[in-house]
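Replying to the earlier thread about multi-chain prediction with a worked example.

Input:
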Amino acid sequence: MILVNYLAAVALFGTGLYVLLTRRNLIKIVMGLSLMEASTYLFLVSLAYRAGSTAPVLLSPPAGKTAKQLAHGNVADPVLQNFCLTAVVIGVAVTAVFLSVVVRVAQHYRTLDADRVRAMRG
Amino acid sequence: MAAALGVAVAGIPREHAALPLIARYALEIAIPRWKLTEPVNEIVYGTRGFDTFGETFLLLAAVVSVIVITRSREPRQGYFGESAAGAREQEQDDPAVGADATAQRARSAERLEQRDQASKGEGLVETPDAVPLGTPAPERAEAMTVVVRTAIRVALPILAVAGLYLVVWGYSPGGGFPGGAVMLGVLLLVYAAFGRRKISRVIRPDLLETLELAGAALIIMAEILGLVFKGSFGANWLPLAPELTPLSGGVAQLFSVSELIEVATGLTIAVFALLGMSHDWARDEGSDSADRGEEQGR
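Result:
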């Protein structure tokens, strides 16, 4: 059933890409990029999932199991959760940079329409 | 393309696959080597500490770019008040830009808010509770209503303590990244409820930027000293307290705390730099007079 999560992540990524390619409003383009970021979070966390597993916390293991058993047995993959944590922070930082660029573009050209930002047009 | 994607999807580990080797390794050494009962923290600050190290400086680079992009040529002290600083240049350059009646009212309200000494007279009120109902927009009060202020007064200490708890109790889920995000939330709530003046003593570029770089320096030090004392970058060189105590992670906890400083100040700088961003009125030097002519013709 985890396949559903993967497909949802692909769908999210596709939606983000579609928004990115078809919209001209710069804010919407940044939103599309954020959607694509979100799809990677979903994908990483889904990758970490294991059937019937517990959270990778060795603090108070479920009844009848010791921390040592947990380490060998059925927990979600902590490395991928670490990746997701990294991705979230990078996503926030990159979005902040994008938005500040968009504000400057809007100030300079008095428009958010990517089509009317003419300086880059050959 | 579709075939390649299909093959890739078919190869993805499903929910019954065994954990990868690195995950098993991290789970096994979490308690013996780091005395951490939380493998995610152990991986973030221990096993894959180098990764986190790189990520920290990616965050720092992003914050520096936001600062560079948002900073104006007019001199300024704080994140807000940029348009007041550029008032003279605006007057010379473009005195009547977008000046219909609503924009004028909004702009004068903003100007009032940005003048620190203008709290008496001049139409700026402390809280909207003093404004009669039905007064047309824009809102001229600095703070929010008593309902919002009380709610935030109650929620703030809880949030702040919860954020610090996430960091201090490093052997349970949490750590510097979520803690830093919570700290940003605390500052934004104060800003939303009580207005800019209440936070202007904390939210200052010089203070925040110093703290940010101090956090980065602390991270470099924590990781480099592992190389000095233990012969490998990021190795633990601090004495390990017994597990389930705040100090049980050794260097991982030091890393986590510096990451709290780094993330909290970095995100705060980025958010307030964006919030305080306004038009840059000073003329560009040199080459782009033609560009400017085109802009005015539009």
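Chain A has a mean pLDDT of 85.

Feel free to reuse this layout for your own posts.
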